[in-house]
Amino acid sequence: MSRTVLVNCTVVDARERPVSGAAVLIDGGRIAAVGPYAEVMPAAGDAVVLDLGGAYVTPGLVNMHTHLSLSLPGPGGESVRTLGPYELALYMADGARRTLHSGVTTVRCVAEKDHADFALRRAITAGRVPGPRIFTAGRALVCTGGHGHEGSDTLECDGPDAFRRGVRAQIKAGADLIKVMISGGIAGEHERIDTPQLFADEMRAVLETAHAWGRKVTAHAGPAPVVAQAVELGLDCVEHGYQLTPEVVAAMAARGTALVPTLLVTRCKAFFDELGVPEWMQARSLGAGPRHLESYAMALEAGVEVLLGSDMPPFWDFEGTSATVRELEHMAEGGLSPARALYAATLGPIRWLGAEAELGTVEPGKHADLIAMDADPLASASAFRSIRWVMKGGEVVRDDRAAVPPDPDPVAAAIDDMYDAFLAADRARFDSHLHPEVTTWETHLPGPLRTRAELDAYREARDSSGERPALARLAAEDKRIDVWGEVAVARYVLVAEQPGAPAERTRVTDVLRRTGGAWRIAHHHAELLH
Ligand SMILES: [Zn+2]
User: Fold this and answer.
1) pLDDT by residue (tens digit) across 409-459?
2) Residue 402 has pLDDT above 80, yes or no
3) Residues in domain Amidohydrolase-related (predicted)?
């Protein structure tokens, strides 16, 4: 397999030690080296160089509550529920491709129809269709008539023996984990959100059997008493948690039970409208929203591990981004810092899945499942809205960076700020707009300043001899800016006014390069006009 080296990027992962000016060497689909450019490049040899233009690189997102064969009540869901087996597999393959392209490189499926998820995973692994890495529960286990019983993505079981058989049947098919519905939910017409649906002996049978086979168990669960009982019996993860209490979140924190809050499911009216979801379900969903958010805040407060999961298809175009990113924004707005949001979207889920030796961080030895974005994810979870590039196993599966329309505004802003900094005598801010290898050629200088060192020497001499101009105004006017990828050219007239003297006008051409997300002047040419 080919070798690639990513350059001109800032590497960020949940270990919170960002490396700017970084390079990432990828060999055979895995990360071979990561660090400062100068340290990595000697090992790169003939690797193909991929310039990421100052982007932020993180591990791919993980969506822990995925249904690629989701079918809610209403006509939208009906069109999925009635697909034949071949159409269903193709439908799910399309969802898998879209999911990967949205930047989600790993999913945890928590109820899929007809075991088509296992066929899909085999096809992805074999390279026949593109898609994320899939960890799946197969069918979810549910009591007769329980939550989600209408679809072929659940298996009805009653009594401990039937639940044991249900667990074993999923594992036999290839399940990595077990999903069980232990209470009612939003999408069930004959139940309430707080309807208990499993008896303790059934829940115990699920947990004992799954754990004996080395599989974790996650439960669709709303009300606190049901969650409390399951946590006590050894449940590994709670989905939704609509009606938690301080007592139950304390128990979850103490026992290390994770929460995938799926906040979107009680705040996605436009999605429901798009699918024609009936009024009774919409009312129940949106009505549960405030209590749901309160539960989530309690869990955060108690120190429960929270993990990203959307329930909506991960890639779904929703409120200007994907459902996955929108969910992460809701989690952040509910009290998760950007750093913890990054963890909840990458390393946290990977640890729950037991895959941290292979995935979850940008470290040597791990799969090169990476995404690149324009904005800094440690500044805001909304940075993931700017994902433009996706790599899985060392292969670039999406690259939209060329499609970004050139934007002259940040270039103009950098130039204006530089002259503001000059007026404010703020040398550090002025210099932040200069490329380390800036060359300067001004007609009123004794000669070209070929390096930054020559520029610094000139400025020292000028300032120490008291010749630094005291200006009332310094402004770039009549700007004409062109941007080509990571390079820009700006032409403008620089107007300098000293108090009581006529304005001095200089015609300037600046060449700028974008590095580390900022435009910096690499060459400055100025000609005094008379
Ligand atoms: Zn779900």
Assistant:
1) 999 999 999 999 999 999 999 999 999 889 999 988 888 999 989 999 999
2) no
3) 56-397
The rounded distance, in Å, linking the Cα atoms of 419 and 263 is 46
- Phi/psi at 287 (5° precision): -65, -30
- How far is the centre of ligand 1, averaged over its atoms, from the C-alpha of 91 (Å)? 18
pLDDT tens across 199-242, in order? 999 999 999 999 999 999 999 998 999 999 999 999 999 999 99
Q: What is d(CA 387, CA 371) in angstroms, rounded to the nearest whole number? A: 7
Average pLDDT score over residue span 387-402: 94
Closest CA to 231 of 203, 192, 273, 211: 203
Distance CA 349, CA 110 (A): 14
Q: What spacing in Å lies between the alpha carbon of 65 and ligand 1's midpoint? A: 6
**Distance from the CA of 443 to the center of ligand 1, in angstroms?**
68
Centre of ligand 1 to C-alpha 62, Å, is 15
Distance 112 CA to ligand 1 centre (A): 10
The structural domains of the chain, ordered by start, are 1-59+360-404 (2.30.40.10), 61-359 (3.20.20.140), 409-529 (3.10.450.50)
Q: What is the pLDDT of residues 308-327, one digit of tens each?
A: 999 999 999 999 999 999 99
Beta bridge partners of 27: 3, 30
463 CA to centre of ligand 1 in angstroms: 67
For 401-412, what is the HEC assignment? HHHCCCCCHHHH
**Nearest alpha carbon to residue 198 among 178, 169, 215:** 178
- Alpha carbon of 42 to ligand 1 centroid (Å): 48
Calculated CA dihedral for residues 208, 209, 213, 214, nearest 10 degrees: -40
Q: Could you count the other beta carbons within 10 Å of the beta carbon of residue 230?
A: 26
